[in-house]
Amino acid sequence: MRRHLLVGAAALALFGCSKEAPAPEEAQSSATETAQPSASEKLDAVLAAQPEADKARYAARHPKETLEFFGVQPGMTVVDTLPGDVWYSGILLDYLGPQGKVIAADYSPEMWTQFGEYSPKPEEKAKWTTDFAAKLEAKRGEDDAAVTAVHYGSIPDDLAGTADVVLVVRAIHHFMRLEDKGYLTQALEDMKKVLKPGGIVGVVAHRAPEQSADAWAKGDSGYVKQSAVVAAFEKAGFELVEASEINANPKDQPTEKDVVWRLPPTLATSQNNPELKAQMEAIGETDRMTLKFRKPA
Question: Which of 41, 112, 116, 214 falls 20 to 30 Å from 14 in CA-CA distance?
């Protein structure tokens, strides 16, 4: 990690019944060992070093609590679904350290063609794995994690059974809304393929009210039902370990006329309506489920 982490001085070690002080090289070695920060301290330092615009969203996105809930630790291999420069690949790059690895995983180029007017140019997605891996490599320091980039639907065989955790943060609704073309089924199989036995999938998703219509809550609006997410993972052979409310927002009570993007940070429906914009800002970011699944050992 490029930013040095400092902790307090090491305590003096005692050696059996001897009254002799340790040799200088022994004392220095002991001090170096005890000076290593804990995983929590390291994550604090990494998060503190992120751009101000991203830190402004910590109160809504709870990155420390989320990563710790999913059990992400330095030295792990972690898949980041729909990765960004910060969320979460940029954070993981520093946090996982030299023994760790970031696998940035984007939707397949074919899946991106299903996004209508929001679909990127096919030639851009065709070379995305090379371009994004190069972008992460350019940010890497000598103490940062190794990096690679892949597409869902074409996970290389040499990555099978290598990952400790797969993060699916604010992305599962895209797979779910396109399940009529099999994209959710394929993604869940890819997650099982890349994970070690006992590996974890961490899901954060915009939560639809359980009483809402299935047709509205399938993901087109950005919202999906927690029960539907759990059912899909269990059908694919995963076990639900635990659910958390760390990313919940009870102020967000969407109706079937609402979309995720009406709320911060997008505020898509109120750009020219100050009163409505103030109402959306008062709600804050979406109510989100946080689910921890395990691939059976």
Answer: 41
